[in-house]
Design brief:
By secondary structure, this protein is α/β, with parallel strands linked by helices. Helix content is 32%, strand content 17%. It contains ten helices and eleven strands. Helix 6 links the parallel strand 4 and strand 5. Helix 1 packs antiparallel against helix 2 and helix 5 packs across helix 6. The longest helix has 26 residues. The two termini are 39 Å apart.
């Protein structure tokens, strides 16, 4: 079998509210995307008319300026109040997909935290928010346009909050991008999904089963979460797309992957509906809201950190061995952890001395 080397060919990021600098490039993208895809035209027109990607930038003043903010501070443990201004460790702002302020059941009482105006794609019988498949399709279009719109053999999609249980978001992205052939698969490994997507895409290409694999992901949180609960992860919105294809020289490309799962960490986070802590503190019934809860039990956290350190100690050497690389040859490391200090912990654990970004 003639094994092919897989390489990242193009990347597209849909970061809501991001300014666009090149008017000619935007014009070319708008024309191509309108003729090639089923992405709602209002999102594309918005880019041409405003020279921004659709959506809003939400600064932390969105919390500090609220009349209920002091109430949030009052119910926090004393050692957490100093962090209350950010509502999450180290985050300065969040990005939000286009959304109708009063369109999400359970968020009505906090609608003044949301961007003003209606959804850019508010049409009959559709939710009054940007759909995850629209966001992934837009990121995918940015990625494919950058690569010259090559033929795609597989779409690997991950939507943290999909609009449907079936068909999967992968099928919807496949249709909205008007991909004429190939397959669409939903792949979910939560925060680690991109690494798993790369591994599967590389395997498909290395084996000759595919020439181009489009990996998309969307994170649609802003309009669905309880914005007043400190212990609920208060996250923003974004979508990404990465095109993995055959390496031109069959030498350079994705060098190696390794992964490891620990089942007992399944209770680190969970999703629930309930009354916000602030409402309960003030004796208010409130409206049940959607929350991602974080496990704050100290014994559980100890086990989680132990498992994380063990996983890093196992998978980094495996990936390095696959790529025939040493730590001394690595120029830059990117970690993904929920708090700032843990990125430093990861690079310390593997003995890396260079630059890194968490």
């Amino acid at each position: 079998m003639n094994m092919k080397k897989a390489a990242i060919k193009s990347i597209g990021c849909f970061i809501p509210g991001q300014p666009l600098a090149n008017a000619n490039a935007v014009s070319d993208f708008v024309k191509a995307t309108k003729s090639r895809t089923l992405i709602p035209s209002k999102y594309i027109d918005y880019m041409a008319n405003t020279m921004h990607l659709p959506g809003e930038i939400i600064p932390n003043s969105a919390w500090r300026d609220q009349p209920w903010f002091s109430g949030v501070r009052d119910i926090l443990p004393a050692n957490k109040r100093i962090k209350a201004d950010t509502m999450f460790d180290g985050i300065l702002e969040r990005r939000a997909f286009p959304i109708a302020p009063n369109g999400i059941p359970g968020m009505e009482v906090y609608s003044n935290l949301m961007p003003a105006g209606k959804s850019l794609c508010e049409i009959p019988n559709e939710p009054a928010r940007m759909l995850p498949s629209d966001a992934e399709a837009l990121a995918g279009a940015l990625c494919l346009h950058n690569a010259g719109w090559p033929e795609v053999d597989f779409v690997l999609s991950f939507a943290m909050t999909p609009e449907k249980s079936m068909p999967s978001t992968a099928c919807l992205v496949h249709e909205k991008l008007q991909i004429k052939k190939g397959s669409a698969i939903h792949i979910d490994a939560c925060c680690a999904t991109q690494a798993y997507q790369h591994a599967l895409a590389a395997a498909l290409i290395n084996s000759g089963m595919a020439r181009n694999v489009l990996c998309t992901a969307s994170f649609c949180y802003w309009g669905l979460r309880d914005q007043t609960d400190y212990f609920s992860a208060i996250l923003g919105d974004s979508a990404t797309a990465i095109l993995v294809g055959q390496s031109h020289d069959n030498k350079r490309g994705l060098q190696g992957t390794a992964s490891r799962a620990y089942g007992r960490t399944n209770n680190t986070t969970w999703e629930e509906f309930g009354i916000a802590n602030m409402d309960k503190h003030h004796g208010l019934t409130g409206i049940p809201k959607r929350r991602i809860r974080l496990n704050v039990d100290s014994k559980y956290q100890h086990n989680f950190i132990t498992d994380m350190k063990a996983a890093v100690a196992e998978i980094v050497p495996r990936a390095m061995q696959q790529s025939e690389t040493t730590l001394g040859e690595i120029d830059f490391v990117v970690t993904h952890q929920a708090v700032r200090w843990s990125g430093h912990q990861v690079v310390s654990d593997i003995g890396y001395k260079g630059k890194y970004f968490n």
